[in-house]
Amino acid sequence: MAISFSEKYDSRTITTGSDGAAESAEFLYTLRGVADDSSARILAGNSTAVAYGVLARRSITLEPVHIDITNADACIWDVTVQYGAKDEPDTGNEPTFSFDTTGGTQHITQSKQNISKTAASGAAPDFKGAIGVTSNGVEGVDITVPVYAFTYTYYLEPEMVTQSFRAQIFNLTGKVNSGSFRGFAAGEVLFLGATGSVRRGEKWEITFRFAASQNRTNITIGDITVPSKKGWEYLWVKYAEQEDEEAKTLVQQPVAAYVERVYDEADFSPLEIAV
Known about the structure:
mainly beta
């Protein structure tokens, strides 16, 4: 099942004041196909508008209905988006900034270090840090990994937000920085996209969303040392049966490690907005 984000039939509860103007609004959605809360938050943020008429998005609340970390297709979230009165926009030259370091979830098959191994008798097999080894393979475990999510919100004159400018943002979404970007090295920043809204006669409010993951060097996996891996490259390990002379048995051990590029790189200079 693909990821889906759909509005519920009982959504859009609107509260108006004595003058008939909207004071608050509540939208209800169902999100399916995402297992971890970090990805669910990002998808909910990217799938809902930052403004509803004269109201600004105030909060996004996620409530798990059914979560199965082994089967993302079966996962269901209730999403509630609240809108309220807008603050006076910052129409100066400095963007507003926010960040989130609550991290994401990653499935790993290899530990950083084996602390101990104990057998009922004799020597315990040495799996070289492989986690959850069975006769059929290596099961691994889900852990929290550091992900630095950050946003910049700009208020831009209408003449700046052309169709070409919006297309440029679209083309850079899902790309990784090919050069240094706002204090991060090449390969560390993933552009998650942008949301924008405007009212007639006013400036555009555009929020640019990013996530950062550190580049790494000399990564130890059993007897293997991986020279380097950029932040958003993917590292995976091949396991095979090897002879453990001390335990006198064949065991699953890492025999090779691979680093894969899964995102295209791009020049982020168009995102260094000058206002």
